Amino acid sequence: MIQKDEKKITDGSTIIDGKKTAADIRSEIRTEIEQTVAKGVRAPGLAVILVGEDPASQVYVRNKERACAETGILSFPHRLPATTSQDELLALIAACNADPAVDGILLQLPLPAGLDADKCLLAIDPDKDVDGFHPVSVGRLVLGLPGFVSCTPAGVIELLRRYDLPTEGRKAVVVGRSNIVGKPLASLLMRPGRFGNATVTVCHSRTENLAAVCREADFLFAAIGRPKFITADMVKEGAVVIDVGINRTEEGLCGDVDYAAVCDKVQAITPVPGGVGPMTIAMLLANTVQSWRSRLGL
Ligand code: GUN
Question: Which residue's C-alpha comes closest to atom 3 of ligand 1?
Answer without folding.
Answer: 109
